[in-house]
Amino acid sequence: MATENSGMLSMDPNNYEYSFDNTINVREIYNKIVDSEPNNQLLYTELLKNYAVTGEQILKSISKRAGIKAGKNVKFDKMTGIYRSAVFGYVVYDGMNSVSVIPVINVEDKWRGVMVLPPQKELKRQLSSEDIQNLISEIPIRLMVDYDKVAGLVEENLKFNEGVCCVFVEGKKPVDGNVQKVILDYDMSIETGKKSEDGSIDFKERSFIHNIDAGIQIAHFIPEKPAVDGLDIYDEVLEAHYDEEPCYKIGNNLKVEADGINIKSAIKGILVNNNNTISVSNVIEIEKVDLSTGNIEVDGSVIIKENVTPGFSIKTEGDIKVNGNIEDAKINCGGNLIVSGGIIGGPDSDMHINGKVYASFIRNANLICNGDVIANQIVNSDISCNNRVIVLEGKGVIIGGNVKALNGVWARSIGAISESKTTIIVGRDAEAYALFKNIQTTVKANREEINKYKTLLGSEYFKDPKAFIQRIPENKRDTIKAILKKVSNLVKETTELEEKRKQMSEEFEKLSNSSISSMEGFFPGVTVYISNIRKYITNKISGTEYFYSKELRDISEKAPKTLPPEEYAKIDVVADK
Protein backbone atom coordinates (compact mmCIF):
# COMPACT_ATOMS: atom_id res chain seq x y z
CA MET A 1 0.00 0.00 0.00
CA ALA A 2 1.34 3.47 -0.90
CA THR A 3 2.34 5.69 2.02
CA GLU A 4 2.11 9.47 2.21
CA ASN A 5 5.79 9.82 1.36
CA SER A 6 5.93 7.26 -1.42
CA GLY A 7 6.89 8.14 -4.99
CA MET A 8 3.82 6.33 -6.31
CA LEU A 9 1.48 8.66 -4.39
CA SER A 10 3.26 11.72 -5.82
CA MET A 11 2.33 10.59 -9.36
CA ASP A 12 -1.32 10.05 -8.46
CA PRO A 13 -3.54 12.79 -10.02
CA ASN A 14 -5.51 12.85 -6.76
CA ASN A 15 -2.33 13.97 -5.00
CA TYR A 16 -2.47 17.39 -6.72
CA GLU A 17 -4.57 20.50 -6.29
CA TYR A 18 -4.70 22.62 -9.45
CA SER A 19 -5.02 26.38 -9.04
CA PHE A 20 -5.91 26.93 -12.68
CA ASP A 21 -7.64 25.03 -15.51
CA ASN A 22 -5.58 21.96 -16.37
CA THR A 23 -7.82 21.07 -19.34
CA ILE A 24 -6.90 24.08 -21.49
CA ASN A 25 -4.23 23.72 -24.18
CA VAL A 26 -2.53 27.00 -23.21
CA ARG A 27 0.45 26.65 -25.53
CA GLU A 28 -1.74 26.10 -28.59
CA ILE A 29 -3.85 29.20 -27.76
CA TYR A 30 -0.72 31.27 -27.13
CA ASN A 31 0.86 30.23 -30.45
CA LYS A 32 -2.30 31.09 -32.36
CA ILE A 33 -2.28 34.60 -30.91
CA VAL A 34 1.41 35.19 -31.67
CA ASP A 35 1.58 33.59 -35.11
CA SER A 36 -1.79 34.24 -36.74
CA GLU A 37 -4.60 35.74 -34.65
CA PRO A 38 -3.28 38.64 -32.51
CA ASN A 39 -6.68 40.42 -32.51
CA ASN A 40 -8.84 37.40 -31.60
CA GLN A 41 -10.22 38.45 -28.18
CA LEU A 42 -11.83 35.04 -27.62
CA LEU A 43 -8.34 33.55 -27.46
CA TYR A 44 -7.24 36.11 -24.87
CA THR A 45 -10.33 35.30 -22.79
CA GLU A 46 -9.31 31.63 -22.73
CA LEU A 47 -5.70 32.54 -21.96
CA LEU A 48 -6.81 34.74 -19.07
CA LYS A 49 -8.15 31.65 -17.24
CA ASN A 50 -4.56 30.52 -16.67
CA TYR A 51 -2.92 33.91 -16.06
CA ALA A 52 -0.71 33.97 -12.95
CA VAL A 53 1.26 36.76 -11.30
CA THR A 54 4.72 36.43 -9.83
CA GLY A 55 4.72 34.33 -6.64
CA GLU A 56 1.17 33.01 -7.13
CA GLN A 57 0.44 29.38 -6.27
CA ILE A 58 -0.30 27.36 -9.42
CA LEU A 59 -0.17 23.76 -8.12
CA LYS A 60 0.08 21.89 -4.82
CA SER A 61 1.38 18.41 -4.06
CA ILE A 62 -0.51 17.05 -1.07
CA SER A 63 2.32 14.58 -0.39
CA LYS A 64 4.82 17.47 -0.70
CA ARG A 65 6.81 15.44 -3.22
CA ALA A 66 7.60 16.96 -6.62
CA GLY A 67 6.31 14.10 -8.80
CA ILE A 68 5.30 16.63 -11.45
CA LYS A 69 8.41 18.45 -12.65
CA ALA A 70 8.70 22.19 -11.99
CA GLY A 71 9.41 23.49 -15.49
CA LYS A 72 10.40 26.89 -16.83
CA ASN A 73 9.52 29.87 -14.64
CA VAL A 74 8.17 27.67 -11.82
CA LYS A 75 9.56 27.17 -8.30
CA PHE A 76 8.72 24.24 -6.01
CA ASP A 77 8.73 24.60 -2.21
CA LYS A 78 9.63 21.25 -0.63
CA MET A 79 8.42 22.36 2.77
CA THR A 80 4.88 23.15 1.61
CA GLY A 81 4.63 21.13 -1.62
CA ILE A 82 3.52 24.31 -3.43
CA TYR A 83 4.50 25.20 -7.00
CA ARG A 84 4.64 28.96 -7.62
CA SER A 85 5.00 31.09 -10.75
CA ALA A 86 8.30 32.99 -10.95
CA VAL A 87 6.92 35.46 -13.54
CA PHE A 88 3.78 37.10 -14.84
CA GLY A 89 2.48 34.67 -17.41
CA TYR A 90 0.32 31.75 -18.49
CA VAL A 91 0.31 28.41 -16.67
CA VAL A 92 0.86 25.32 -18.83
CA TYR A 93 0.04 21.90 -17.35
CA ASP A 94 1.67 19.09 -19.32
CA GLY A 95 -0.32 16.18 -17.88
CA MET A 96 1.59 14.45 -15.08
CA ASN A 97 4.92 15.41 -16.62
CA SER A 98 5.51 19.06 -15.78
CA VAL A 99 4.09 22.50 -15.07
CA SER A 100 5.57 25.66 -16.61
CA VAL A 101 4.70 29.32 -17.22
CA ILE A 102 4.92 31.25 -20.51
CA PRO A 103 5.96 34.79 -19.47
CA VAL A 104 4.15 37.92 -20.62
CA ILE A 105 7.53 39.13 -21.92
CA ASN A 106 8.76 36.09 -23.79
CA VAL A 107 12.18 35.80 -25.46
CA GLU A 108 12.21 32.02 -25.66
CA ASP A 109 12.66 32.08 -29.45
CA LYS A 110 15.92 34.08 -28.97
CA TRP A 111 15.54 35.78 -32.36
CA ARG A 112 12.55 37.88 -31.21
CA GLY A 113 10.88 39.26 -28.09
CA VAL A 114 7.09 38.93 -27.79
CA MET A 115 4.62 40.60 -25.46
CA VAL A 116 1.23 38.95 -24.92
CA LEU A 117 -0.84 40.86 -22.37
CA PRO A 118 -4.34 39.67 -21.29
CA PRO A 119 -7.30 41.97 -20.53
CA GLN A 120 -6.34 43.47 -17.15
CA LYS A 121 -9.38 45.48 -16.02
CA GLU A 122 -10.63 42.79 -13.62
CA LEU A 123 -7.16 41.90 -12.32
CA LYS A 124 -6.03 42.97 -8.86
CA ARG A 125 -2.43 43.34 -10.02
CA GLN A 126 -2.18 45.20 -13.34
CA LEU A 127 0.98 45.68 -15.36
CA SER A 128 1.59 49.28 -16.42
CA SER A 129 3.67 50.49 -19.34
CA GLU A 130 6.47 51.18 -16.88
CA ASP A 131 6.22 47.67 -15.45
CA ILE A 132 6.50 46.16 -18.94
CA GLN A 133 9.49 48.37 -19.81
CA ASN A 134 11.20 47.32 -16.57
CA LEU A 135 10.62 43.64 -17.40
CA ILE A 136 12.15 44.17 -20.85
CA SER A 137 15.09 46.17 -19.49
CA GLU A 138 16.06 43.26 -17.22
CA ILE A 139 16.89 41.25 -20.38
CA PRO A 140 20.36 42.04 -21.87
CA ILE A 141 18.95 42.79 -25.35
CA ARG A 142 21.52 44.25 -27.78
CA LEU A 143 19.15 45.07 -30.64
CA MET A 144 16.76 48.04 -30.82
CA VAL A 145 13.58 47.64 -28.74
CA ASP A 146 10.39 49.36 -29.93
CA TYR A 147 9.33 50.81 -26.58
CA ASP A 148 6.84 53.17 -28.26
CA LYS A 149 4.90 50.21 -29.69
CA VAL A 150 4.90 48.55 -26.26
CA ALA A 151 3.71 51.71 -24.50
CA GLY A 152 0.92 52.31 -27.00
CA LEU A 153 -0.40 48.76 -26.75
CA VAL A 154 -0.29 48.71 -22.94
CA GLU A 155 -2.28 51.94 -22.93
CA GLU A 156 -4.91 50.37 -25.23
CA ASN A 157 -4.95 47.28 -23.07
CA LEU A 158 -5.75 49.21 -19.91
CA LYS A 159 -8.18 51.61 -21.60
CA PHE A 160 -10.25 49.12 -23.63
CA ASN A 161 -9.64 45.99 -21.52
CA GLU A 162 -8.51 44.04 -24.59
CA GLY A 163 -5.68 41.56 -24.95
CA VAL A 164 -2.74 42.81 -26.97
CA CYS A 165 0.26 41.22 -28.65
CA CYS A 166 3.36 42.52 -30.38
CA VAL A 167 6.92 41.69 -31.33
CA PHE A 168 8.94 44.40 -29.58
CA VAL A 169 12.40 43.36 -30.77
CA GLU A 170 13.34 41.23 -33.72
CA GLY A 171 16.56 39.80 -35.11
CA LYS A 172 16.52 37.21 -37.89
CA LYS A 173 14.94 33.79 -37.66
CA PRO A 174 17.29 30.98 -38.72
CA VAL A 175 16.05 28.82 -41.59
CA ASP A 176 16.90 25.15 -41.20
CA GLY A 177 18.14 23.28 -44.25
CA ASN A 178 18.25 19.67 -45.34
CA VAL A 179 19.72 17.31 -47.88
CA GLN A 180 17.39 15.94 -50.51
CA LYS A 181 15.11 13.57 -48.61
CA VAL A 182 13.21 10.49 -49.68
CA ILE A 183 9.88 10.27 -47.85
CA LEU A 184 8.10 6.92 -47.92
CA ASP A 185 4.47 7.04 -49.12
CA TYR A 186 3.83 3.29 -49.23
CA ASP A 187 2.67 1.76 -45.94
CA MET A 188 5.18 -0.99 -45.12
CA SER A 189 3.72 -1.78 -41.71
CA ILE A 190 2.97 -5.39 -40.73
CA GLU A 191 -0.49 -6.32 -39.53
CA THR A 192 -1.10 -8.10 -36.21
CA GLY A 193 -3.41 -10.52 -37.97
CA LYS A 194 -6.45 -10.71 -40.21
CA LYS A 195 -9.91 -10.38 -38.72
CA SER A 196 -12.32 -13.15 -39.72
CA GLU A 197 -16.07 -12.76 -40.29
CA ASP A 198 -16.75 -14.24 -36.85
CA GLY A 199 -14.58 -11.56 -35.25
CA SER A 200 -11.62 -13.82 -34.43
CA ILE A 201 -8.07 -12.90 -35.45
CA ASP A 202 -5.99 -15.17 -37.70
CA PHE A 203 -2.48 -14.36 -36.47
CA LYS A 204 -0.96 -16.29 -39.38
CA GLU A 205 -2.17 -13.69 -41.89
CA ARG A 206 0.07 -10.66 -41.27
CA SER A 207 0.85 -9.30 -44.76
CA PHE A 208 4.55 -9.63 -43.89
CA ILE A 209 5.57 -9.43 -47.56
CA HIS A 210 4.68 -6.36 -49.61
CA ASN A 211 3.93 -7.53 -53.17
CA ILE A 212 3.43 -4.66 -55.59
CA ASP A 213 2.70 -4.09 -59.26
CA ALA A 214 4.71 -1.84 -61.56
CA GLY A 215 3.76 1.85 -61.43
CA ILE A 216 2.81 1.96 -57.74
CA GLN A 217 3.61 5.16 -55.80
CA ILE A 218 6.37 4.30 -53.33
CA ALA A 219 7.93 7.57 -52.14
CA HIS A 220 8.65 11.18 -53.01
CA PHE A 221 11.55 13.62 -52.79
CA ILE A 222 11.74 16.66 -50.56
CA PRO A 223 14.19 18.99 -52.36
CA GLU A 224 17.50 19.99 -50.83
CA LYS A 225 17.31 23.28 -48.95
CA PRO A 226 20.30 25.33 -47.72
CA ALA A 227 20.54 26.34 -44.06
CA VAL A 228 20.48 30.11 -43.42
CA ASP A 229 21.80 31.35 -40.06
CA GLY A 230 19.80 33.88 -38.08
CA LEU A 231 20.57 36.67 -35.59
CA ASP A 232 19.35 36.62 -31.98
CA ILE A 233 18.25 39.63 -29.90
CA TYR A 234 21.65 39.59 -28.19
CA ASP A 235 23.31 40.36 -31.53
CA GLU A 236 24.77 36.85 -31.79
CA VAL A 237 24.55 34.48 -34.75
CA LEU A 238 21.87 31.84 -34.43
CA GLU A 239 23.13 28.80 -36.27
CA ALA A 240 20.58 27.07 -38.44
CA HIS A 241 20.34 23.28 -38.32
CA TYR A 242 21.22 21.32 -41.45
CA ASP A 243 19.59 17.89 -41.56
CA GLU A 244 21.92 15.47 -43.33
CA GLU A 245 19.71 12.41 -42.89
CA PRO A 246 18.06 11.46 -46.22
CA CYS A 247 15.48 9.20 -44.43
CA TYR A 248 15.61 6.55 -47.16
CA LYS A 249 17.79 5.73 -50.13
CA ILE A 250 16.56 4.67 -53.56
CA GLY A 251 17.59 1.15 -54.55
CA ASN A 252 16.93 -1.09 -57.54
CA ASN A 253 13.85 -1.11 -59.76
CA LEU A 254 12.42 2.23 -58.67
CA LYS A 255 11.91 5.07 -61.14
CA VAL A 256 11.65 8.82 -60.62
CA GLU A 257 8.75 10.38 -62.48
CA ALA A 258 9.18 13.26 -64.94
CA ASP A 259 8.23 15.74 -62.23
CA GLY A 260 11.45 14.81 -60.41
CA ILE A 261 9.51 14.29 -57.17
CA ASN A 262 7.42 11.13 -57.24
CA ILE A 263 9.06 7.71 -57.08
CA LYS A 264 7.26 4.61 -58.38
CA SER A 265 7.95 0.90 -58.78
CA ALA A 266 9.51 0.06 -62.14
CA ILE A 267 8.63 -3.66 -62.07
CA LYS A 268 6.21 -6.07 -60.44
CA GLY A 269 7.88 -7.64 -57.43
CA ILE A 270 8.53 -7.35 -53.70
CA LEU A 271 9.02 -4.02 -51.94
CA VAL A 272 12.05 -4.36 -49.68
CA ASN A 273 13.53 -2.08 -47.02
CA ASN A 274 17.14 -3.12 -46.47
CA ASN A 275 18.86 -0.78 -43.99
CA ASN A 276 16.64 2.10 -45.17
CA THR A 277 17.36 1.40 -48.84
CA ILE A 278 14.05 0.88 -50.63
CA SER A 279 14.05 -1.48 -53.62
CA VAL A 280 11.72 -3.62 -55.65
CA SER A 281 13.20 -7.08 -55.92
CA ASN A 282 12.38 -10.49 -57.31
CA VAL A 283 13.95 -12.08 -54.23
CA ILE A 284 13.33 -11.37 -50.54
CA GLU A 285 15.34 -12.72 -47.62
CA ILE A 286 13.70 -13.39 -44.23
CA GLU A 287 14.88 -15.05 -41.02
CA LYS A 288 12.19 -17.74 -40.60
CA VAL A 289 8.51 -18.49 -41.04
CA ASP A 290 6.55 -18.49 -37.78
CA LEU A 291 4.10 -16.25 -35.92
CA SER A 292 6.48 -13.31 -36.33
CA THR A 293 5.92 -13.43 -40.11
CA GLY A 294 2.70 -15.35 -40.54
CA ASN A 295 2.00 -17.13 -43.81
CA ILE A 296 4.15 -15.97 -46.72
CA GLU A 297 2.91 -15.03 -50.19
CA VAL A 298 5.53 -13.69 -52.61
CA ASP A 299 5.34 -12.39 -56.18
CA GLY A 300 8.90 -13.62 -56.69
CA SER A 301 11.38 -15.78 -54.75
CA VAL A 302 12.08 -16.07 -51.03
CA ILE A 303 15.17 -17.10 -49.05
CA ILE A 304 14.46 -18.32 -45.51
CA LYS A 305 17.56 -18.37 -43.30
CA GLU A 306 16.15 -20.73 -40.68
CA ASN A 307 13.12 -23.06 -40.48
CA VAL A 308 9.53 -23.12 -41.65
CA THR A 309 7.45 -23.76 -38.53
CA PRO A 310 4.64 -26.38 -38.59
CA GLY A 311 1.21 -25.11 -39.58
CA PHE A 312 2.30 -22.26 -41.86
CA SER A 313 2.10 -21.83 -45.64
CA ILE A 314 4.30 -20.36 -48.37
CA LYS A 315 3.11 -19.38 -51.82
CA THR A 316 5.52 -17.98 -54.42
CA GLU A 317 5.68 -17.19 -58.10
CA GLY A 318 9.41 -17.92 -58.00
CA ASP A 319 11.84 -20.10 -56.02
CA ILE A 320 11.90 -21.01 -52.33
CA LYS A 321 15.22 -21.58 -50.58
CA VAL A 322 15.20 -22.78 -46.97
CA ASN A 323 18.48 -23.07 -45.07
CA GLY A 324 16.81 -25.12 -42.32
CA ASN A 325 13.88 -27.55 -42.39
CA ILE A 326 10.31 -27.40 -43.64
CA GLU A 327 7.93 -29.16 -41.27
CA ASP A 328 4.22 -29.86 -41.76
CA ALA A 329 3.69 -26.86 -44.03
CA LYS A 330 1.68 -26.02 -47.13
CA ILE A 331 3.97 -25.08 -50.02
CA ASN A 332 2.85 -23.74 -53.39
CA CYS A 333 6.03 -22.91 -55.28
CA GLY A 334 6.06 -21.45 -58.80
CA GLY A 335 9.79 -22.20 -59.22
CA ASN A 336 12.32 -24.50 -57.54
CA LEU A 337 12.21 -25.62 -53.89
CA ILE A 338 15.70 -25.86 -52.37
CA VAL A 339 15.94 -27.11 -48.77
CA SER A 340 19.34 -27.43 -47.09
CA GLY A 341 17.77 -29.46 -44.28
CA GLY A 342 14.81 -31.73 -44.74
CA ILE A 343 11.16 -31.76 -45.74
CA ILE A 344 9.07 -33.30 -42.97
CA GLY A 345 5.40 -33.94 -43.64
CA GLY A 346 2.46 -33.91 -41.27
CA PRO A 347 -1.34 -33.80 -41.15
CA ASP A 348 -1.45 -30.33 -42.77
CA SER A 349 1.43 -30.91 -45.18
CA ASP A 350 0.72 -30.38 -48.87
CA MET A 351 3.31 -29.35 -51.46
CA HIS A 352 3.01 -28.35 -55.12
CA ILE A 353 6.24 -27.35 -56.87
CA ASN A 354 6.36 -26.18 -60.47
CA GLY A 355 10.13 -26.56 -60.81
CA LYS A 356 12.65 -28.89 -59.17
CA VAL A 357 12.96 -30.02 -55.55
CA TYR A 358 16.29 -30.33 -53.72
CA ALA A 359 16.40 -31.59 -50.12
CA SER A 360 18.73 -33.47 -47.78
CA PHE A 361 15.84 -35.73 -46.87
CA ILE A 362 12.09 -36.06 -47.49
CA ARG A 363 10.10 -37.81 -44.78
CA ASN A 364 6.34 -38.48 -44.45
CA ALA A 365 5.66 -35.81 -47.07
CA ASN A 366 2.99 -35.43 -49.73
CA LEU A 367 4.65 -33.74 -52.72
CA ILE A 368 3.70 -33.05 -56.35
CA CYS A 369 6.44 -31.68 -58.59
CA ASN A 370 6.74 -30.85 -62.31
CA GLY A 371 10.56 -31.05 -62.35
CA ASP A 372 13.13 -33.40 -60.84
CA VAL A 373 13.00 -34.43 -57.18
CA ILE A 374 16.58 -34.71 -55.89
CA ALA A 375 17.29 -35.83 -52.31
CA ASN A 376 19.70 -37.88 -50.18
CA GLN A 377 16.85 -40.01 -48.84
CA ILE A 378 13.10 -40.34 -49.27
CA VAL A 379 11.20 -42.14 -46.49
CA ASN A 380 7.49 -42.96 -46.25
CA SER A 381 6.51 -40.20 -48.65
CA ASP A 382 4.03 -39.83 -51.48
CA ILE A 383 5.97 -38.25 -54.38
CA SER A 384 4.53 -37.49 -57.81
CA CYS A 385 6.80 -35.80 -60.34
CA ASN A 386 6.65 -35.24 -64.07
CA ASN A 387 10.38 -35.72 -64.59
CA ARG A 388 12.91 -37.75 -62.55
CA VAL A 389 13.44 -38.78 -58.94
CA ILE A 390 17.19 -38.93 -58.15
CA VAL A 391 18.44 -40.22 -54.79
CA LEU A 392 22.14 -40.94 -55.36
CA GLU A 393 23.97 -38.81 -52.77
CA GLY A 394 24.33 -39.42 -49.02
CA LYS A 395 22.44 -42.52 -47.90
CA GLY A 396 20.69 -42.56 -51.28
CA VAL A 397 17.72 -44.61 -50.08
CA ILE A 398 14.03 -44.74 -50.94
CA ILE A 399 12.14 -46.55 -48.17
CA GLY A 400 8.36 -46.85 -47.91
CA GLY A 401 5.65 -44.77 -49.51
CA ASN A 402 4.83 -44.19 -53.18
CA VAL A 403 7.20 -42.59 -55.67
CA LYS A 404 5.88 -41.76 -59.13
CA ALA A 405 8.21 -40.26 -61.75
CA LEU A 406 7.40 -39.80 -65.42
CA ASN A 407 10.98 -40.11 -66.70
CA GLY A 408 12.64 -42.53 -64.33
CA VAL A 409 13.99 -43.16 -60.82
CA TRP A 410 17.64 -43.46 -59.78
CA ALA A 411 18.70 -44.45 -56.23
CA ARG A 412 21.50 -46.21 -54.43
CA SER A 413 19.02 -48.48 -52.65
CA ILE A 414 15.24 -49.00 -52.81
CA GLY A 415 13.29 -50.65 -49.99
CA ALA A 416 14.54 -51.90 -46.62
CA ILE A 417 15.55 -55.13 -44.91
CA SER A 418 12.31 -54.82 -42.92
CA GLU A 419 10.45 -55.25 -46.25
CA SER A 420 8.74 -51.88 -45.93
CA LYS A 421 6.01 -51.55 -48.54
CA THR A 422 7.52 -49.32 -51.23
CA THR A 423 5.93 -48.55 -54.59
CA ILE A 424 7.90 -47.08 -57.50
CA ILE A 425 6.02 -46.02 -60.63
CA VAL A 426 7.61 -44.63 -63.80
CA GLY A 427 6.36 -43.85 -67.29
CA ARG A 428 3.15 -42.26 -66.08
CA ASP A 429 2.36 -38.57 -65.94
CA ALA A 430 1.30 -37.94 -62.36
CA GLU A 431 -1.76 -35.93 -63.35
CA ALA A 432 -2.52 -38.13 -66.33
CA TYR A 433 -2.37 -41.24 -64.16
CA ALA A 434 -4.76 -39.66 -61.65
CA LEU A 435 -7.11 -38.87 -64.54
CA PHE A 436 -6.70 -42.43 -65.87
CA LYS A 437 -7.64 -43.90 -62.48
CA ASN A 438 -10.62 -41.55 -62.27
CA ILE A 439 -11.75 -42.66 -65.75
CA GLN A 440 -11.48 -46.30 -64.70
CA THR A 441 -13.53 -45.62 -61.56
CA THR A 442 -16.17 -43.68 -63.51
CA VAL A 443 -16.46 -46.36 -66.23
CA LYS A 444 -16.93 -49.05 -63.59
CA ALA A 445 -19.57 -47.00 -61.75
CA ASN A 446 -21.40 -46.21 -65.04
CA ARG A 447 -21.52 -49.88 -66.06
CA GLU A 448 -22.91 -50.86 -62.68
CA GLU A 449 -25.62 -48.19 -62.98
CA ILE A 450 -26.45 -49.20 -66.57
CA ASN A 451 -26.83 -52.86 -65.47
CA LYS A 452 -29.08 -51.72 -62.60
CA TYR A 453 -31.39 -49.92 -65.03
CA LYS A 454 -31.36 -52.88 -67.42
CA THR A 455 -32.49 -55.10 -64.57
CA LEU A 456 -35.16 -52.56 -63.65
CA LEU A 457 -36.48 -52.33 -67.22
CA GLY A 458 -36.28 -56.06 -67.94
CA SER A 459 -35.37 -57.92 -71.13
CA GLU A 460 -38.64 -57.06 -72.93
CA TYR A 461 -37.54 -53.48 -73.47
CA PHE A 462 -34.40 -54.51 -75.36
CA LYS A 463 -36.37 -56.88 -77.68
CA ASP A 464 -38.76 -54.18 -78.89
CA PRO A 465 -38.38 -50.73 -77.18
CA LYS A 466 -41.37 -49.14 -78.98
CA ALA A 467 -43.76 -51.97 -78.10
CA PHE A 468 -42.46 -51.91 -74.54
CA ILE A 469 -43.25 -48.19 -74.12
CA GLN A 470 -46.69 -48.61 -75.66
CA ARG A 471 -47.56 -51.17 -73.01
CA ILE A 472 -46.62 -48.70 -70.24
CA PRO A 473 -49.58 -46.73 -68.78
CA GLU A 474 -49.56 -43.11 -69.98
CA ASN A 475 -49.19 -41.73 -66.46
CA LYS A 476 -45.88 -43.61 -66.08
CA ARG A 477 -44.40 -43.06 -69.54
CA ASP A 478 -42.63 -39.78 -68.64
CA THR A 479 -40.85 -41.50 -65.76
CA ILE A 480 -39.74 -44.36 -67.99
CA LYS A 481 -38.59 -41.94 -70.71
CA ALA A 482 -36.50 -40.05 -68.13
CA ILE A 483 -34.87 -43.33 -67.09
CA LEU A 484 -34.21 -44.25 -70.72
CA LYS A 485 -32.66 -40.83 -71.39
CA LYS A 486 -30.38 -41.27 -68.38
CA VAL A 487 -29.34 -44.73 -69.58
CA SER A 488 -28.64 -43.32 -73.04
CA ASN A 489 -26.46 -40.56 -71.57
CA LEU A 490 -24.58 -43.05 -69.38
CA VAL A 491 -23.91 -45.30 -72.40
CA LYS A 492 -22.64 -42.32 -74.43
CA GLU A 493 -20.40 -41.06 -71.58
CA THR A 494 -19.03 -44.55 -70.96
CA THR A 495 -18.19 -45.05 -74.62
CA GLU A 496 -16.32 -41.74 -74.73
CA LEU A 497 -14.42 -42.52 -71.50
CA GLU A 498 -13.42 -45.98 -72.75
CA GLU A 499 -12.01 -44.38 -75.89
CA LYS A 500 -10.09 -41.88 -73.74
CA ARG A 501 -8.80 -44.71 -71.55
CA LYS A 502 -7.61 -46.59 -74.63
CA GLN A 503 -5.76 -43.51 -75.92
CA MET A 504 -4.12 -42.97 -72.55
CA SER A 505 -3.06 -46.61 -72.34
CA GLU A 506 -1.36 -46.22 -75.72
CA GLU A 507 0.34 -43.04 -74.47
CA PHE A 508 1.52 -44.84 -71.34
CA GLU A 509 3.11 -47.49 -73.53
CA LYS A 510 5.04 -44.76 -75.37
CA LEU A 511 6.36 -43.60 -72.02
CA SER A 512 7.52 -47.09 -71.18
CA ASN A 513 11.12 -46.20 -72.05
CA SER A 514 11.47 -44.88 -68.52
CA SER A 515 13.35 -47.13 -66.11
CA ILE A 516 14.00 -47.70 -62.40
CA SER A 517 17.65 -47.99 -61.37
CA SER A 518 19.05 -48.98 -57.97
CA MET A 519 22.85 -49.06 -57.81
CA GLU A 520 22.92 -51.39 -54.77
CA GLY A 521 19.64 -53.19 -55.35
CA PHE A 522 16.02 -53.71 -54.29
CA PHE A 523 14.61 -55.26 -51.10
CA PRO A 524 11.53 -57.47 -50.77
CA GLY A 525 8.36 -55.43 -50.25
CA VAL A 526 9.08 -53.22 -53.25
CA THR A 527 6.62 -53.03 -56.15
CA VAL A 528 7.72 -51.44 -59.40
CA TYR A 529 5.47 -50.21 -62.21
CA ILE A 530 6.69 -49.29 -65.67
CA SER A 531 3.71 -47.76 -67.40
CA ASN A 532 0.94 -50.31 -66.72
CA ILE A 533 3.22 -53.31 -66.12
CA ARG A 534 3.80 -54.38 -62.51
CA LYS A 535 6.55 -56.38 -60.83
CA TYR A 536 6.75 -57.50 -57.19
CA ILE A 537 10.17 -57.86 -55.58
CA THR A 538 10.12 -60.97 -53.38
CA ASN A 539 13.85 -61.52 -52.91
CA LYS A 540 16.82 -59.22 -52.35
CA ILE A 541 18.01 -58.06 -55.77
CA SER A 542 21.53 -56.71 -56.36
CA GLY A 543 22.18 -53.55 -58.37
CA THR A 544 19.62 -53.54 -61.18
CA GLU A 545 17.89 -51.35 -63.72
CA TYR A 546 14.30 -52.36 -64.44
CA PHE A 547 13.03 -51.37 -67.87
CA TYR A 548 10.20 -52.25 -70.24
CA SER A 549 11.16 -54.80 -72.89
CA LYS A 550 9.10 -54.29 -76.03
CA GLU A 551 10.15 -57.70 -77.30
CA LEU A 552 8.95 -59.45 -74.14
CA ARG A 553 6.20 -56.88 -73.54
CA ASP A 554 7.17 -57.11 -69.90
CA ILE A 555 9.54 -55.64 -67.33
CA SER A 556 13.11 -56.80 -67.79
CA GLU A 557 16.36 -55.99 -66.00
CA LYS A 558 19.97 -55.10 -66.72
CA ALA A 559 23.04 -53.65 -64.99
CA PRO A 560 22.31 -50.14 -63.75
CA LYS A 561 23.98 -47.00 -65.05
CA THR A 562 24.37 -44.04 -62.77
CA LEU A 563 23.78 -40.43 -63.80
CA PRO A 564 26.54 -37.85 -64.27
CA PRO A 565 26.67 -35.64 -61.11
CA GLU A 566 26.12 -32.48 -63.15
CA GLU A 567 22.62 -33.73 -64.00
CA TYR A 568 21.53 -33.48 -60.37
CA ALA A 569 23.81 -30.68 -59.14
CA LYS A 570 22.12 -28.34 -56.66
CA ILE A 571 21.17 -24.90 -57.92
CA ASP A 572 21.03 -21.76 -55.75
CA VAL A 573 18.89 -18.69 -55.15
CA VAL A 574 20.75 -15.44 -54.43
CA ALA A 575 19.30 -12.32 -52.84
CA ASP A 576 19.79 -8.93 -54.47
CA LYS A 577 22.82 -6.99 -53.23
Structure description:
The protein is α/β, with parallel strands linked by helices and 577 residues long. The protein is 21% helix and 34% strand. The chain is built from nine helices and 48 strands. The chain has a 23-stranded mixed sheet that branches. β22 (254-256) and β23 form a beta hairpin. α2 runs antiparallel to α3 (41-48) and α6 (430-457) runs antiparallel to α9. It is elongated, with a radius of gyration of 43 Å.
pLDDT < 50 stretches: 1-9
Global morphology? elongated
SS element count, helices: 9
Major β-sheet, in short? Answer: 23 strands, mixed
Q: Report the strand count.
A: 48
Given helix and strand content, the structural type is: alpha/beta
Helix % is 10-25%
How far the N terminus sits from the C terminus, by CA atoms, comes to 58 Å
Please compute the radius of gyration using only Cα atoms: 43 Å
Q: Give the DSSP E fraction (strand runs of 2 or more residues).
A: 25-35%
**Overall residue-averaged pLDDT value:** 91
Task: Compose a concise summary of this entry.
The protein is an alpha/beta fold. Helix content is 21%, strand content 34%. The strands form nine sheets. The protein has a 23-stranded mixed beta sheet that branches.
SSE map:
Layout (H helix, E strand, L loop, with lengths): L6 H4 L5 E3 L7 H10 L5 H8 L2 E2 L4 E5 L7 E2 L3 E4 L4 E4 L3 E6 L3 E6 L1 E2 L5 E6 L11 H9 L9 H14 L3 E7 L6 E2 L2 E4 L9 E2 L5 E2 L7 E3 L4 E6 L7 E2 L5 E2 L3 E2 L5 E2 L3 E3 L5 E4 L3 E6 L2 E5 L1 E4 L9 E3 L2 E4 L8 E4 L3 E3 L3 E2 L2 E4 L3 E8 L5 E4 L3 E7 L2 E4 L3 E3 L1 E9 L3 E3 L5 E9 L3 E3 L1 E2 L7 E5 L3 H28 L1 H5 L1 H7 L2 H37 L5 E3 L7 E5 L2 E4 L7 E6 L4 E5 L19
Parallel strand pairs: 4-8, 12-20, 21-25, 26-28, 27-29, 28-30, 29-32, 30-33, 31-33, 32-34, 33-35, 34-36, 35-37, 35-38, 36-38, 37-39, 38-40, 39-41, 40-42, 40-43, 41-44, 43-45
Antiparallel strand pairs: 1-3, 2-7, 3-6, 5-6, 7-8, 9-10, 10-11, 13-17, 14-15, 16-24, 17-23, 18-19, 22-23, 24-25, 44-47, 45-46, 47-48
Helix pairs in contact: 2-3, 4-5, 6-9
